[in-house]
């Protein structure tokens, strides 16, 4: 028997519950599933409740993780265990998991990203090892990547929601929080944002092809150099475009050329560069137009950029930016890939990856359609 889905468990940056809810509603509706959201302001968590139970795999297909921007983590909600007695919390939780009649390959323990939820860390460090040992003894938790991941989302020490996801269809980091170490010689903490973007928004093949020594990158709005640092550390040449000052250590590396110019008007002296990145504080639609011009025209192969969203119309502004990019590529019928996510290291913004891709092979498509 396959588990049934009660809804979606969504973790987000506190304050973005409204946007996360709007995405869930849009995806569920498109997948023919009706429901409603349960959340509170600044909770960092959204329960999207289905009006009717559906197979959990159907819910996965309706709301894939990559379709979300504002959800740091998404799992399919299958059960809630509430009122666990203080004298024995293990037994009711294990029995609830066993009742799902499913084996899992990984256990992710999660809470919302709030100070209240963080207070559970001590309890969870003591409690979870008992759960893991028992699940392994009962052959529910197996060391097999092809099996689903079991998410345990704790509200407090007496209530936990059970969720499921598939490998590659959820954040690889529990709670969607990338725990990255700040490089000692990086000019600013913004370097962590680009490092997270490389992991969260790109495939391994894309990283291998584009992040290698000798390639060229353009960093628009570079000062003080946190994003340029990520490229120079990989042996790549960087045009760091900004009228503001760069860190002396970055310029001294010999891999970064400081160009004192306006990022909206400057153009690279090379016919094409591998990368253009942009972290300028500017109207989102204007940034979307700028970076889509760079990529659609072929001046750069790929781009990572930030969109600083207005507080009251984030979802609407993001939709507008998508339309700007679509219109630019539509001028000549170009194809592109666009991936957007609010990263852990983002604040009132989202980060996006954009690249032009070849048109689908019509001959290959025709052969597949005849099979």
TrEMBL record:
GO terms for molecular function: methyltransferase activity. It comes from the Bacteria. Keywords: Cytoplasm, Methyltransferase, rRNA processing, S-adenosyl-L-methionine, Transferase. This is 23S rRNA (Cytidine(2498)-2'-O)-methyltransferase RlmM. The active site is at 308 (proton acceptor). It comes from Candidatus Dactylopiibacterium carminicum. Residues 188-282 form the Ribosomal RNA methyltransferase FtsJ domain. Residues 88-165 form the Ribosomal RNA large subunit methyltransferase M THUMP-like domain. Residues 6-73 form the RlmM ferredoxin-like domain. S-adenosyl-L-methionine binds at residues 190, 223-226, 242, 262, 279. Gene3D superfamilies: 3.30.2300.20, 3.30.70.2810, Vaccinia Virus protein VP39. One of its GO terms (biological process) is methylation. PANTHER family: RIBOSOMAL RNA LARGE SUBUNIT METHYLTRANSFERASE M, RIBOSOMAL RNA METHYLTRANSFERASE FTSJ DOMAIN-CONTAINING PROTEIN.
């Amino acid at each position: 028997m396959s588990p049934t889905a009660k809804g979606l468990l969504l973790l987000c940056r506190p304050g973005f519950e409204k946007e996360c809810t709007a995405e869930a509603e849009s995806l569920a509706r498109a997948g023919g599933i009706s429901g409603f959201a349960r959340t509170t302001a600044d909770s960092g968590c959204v329960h999207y409740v289905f009006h009717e139970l559906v197979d959990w795999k159907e819910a996965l297909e309706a709301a894939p993780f990559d379709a979300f921007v504002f959800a740091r983590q998404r799992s399919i909600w299958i059960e809630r265990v509430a009122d666990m007695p203080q004298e024995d919390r293990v037994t009711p939780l294990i029995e609830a998991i066993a009742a799902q009649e499913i084996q899992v390959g990984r256990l992710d323990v999660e809470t919302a990203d709030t100070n209240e939820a963080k207070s559970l860390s001590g309890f969870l460090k003591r409690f979870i090892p008992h759960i893991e040992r028992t699940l392994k003894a009962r052959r529910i938790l197996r060391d097999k990547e092809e099996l689903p991941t079991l998410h345990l989302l704790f509200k407090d020490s007496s209530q936990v929601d059970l969720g499921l996801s598939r490998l590659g269809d959820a954040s690889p980091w529990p709670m969607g929080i990338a725990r990255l170490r700040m490089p000692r010689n990086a000019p600013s903490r913004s370097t962590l944002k680009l490092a997270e973007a490389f992991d969260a928004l790109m495939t391994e093949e894309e990283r291998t092809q584009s992040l290698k020594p000798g390639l060229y990158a353009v960093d628009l709005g570079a000062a003080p150099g946190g994003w340029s640092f990520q490229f120079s550390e990989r042996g790549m040449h960087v045009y760091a475009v900004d009228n503001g000052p760069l860190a002396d250590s970055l310029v001294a590396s010999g891999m970064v050329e400081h160009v004192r110019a306006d990022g909206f008007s400057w153009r690279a002296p090379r016919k094409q560069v591998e990368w253009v990145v942009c972290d300028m504080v500017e109207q989102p639609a204007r940034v979307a137009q700028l970076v889509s011009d760079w990529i659609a025209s072929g001046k750069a192969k790929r781009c990572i950029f930030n969109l600083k969203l207005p507080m009251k119309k984030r979802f609407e502004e993001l939709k507008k930016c998508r339309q700007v990019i679509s219109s630019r590529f539509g001028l000549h019928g170009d194809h592109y890939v666009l991936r957007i996510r609010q990263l852990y290291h983002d604040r009132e913004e989202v980060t996006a990856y954009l690249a032009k891709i070849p048109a689908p092979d019509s001959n290959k498509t025709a052969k597949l359609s005849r099979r």
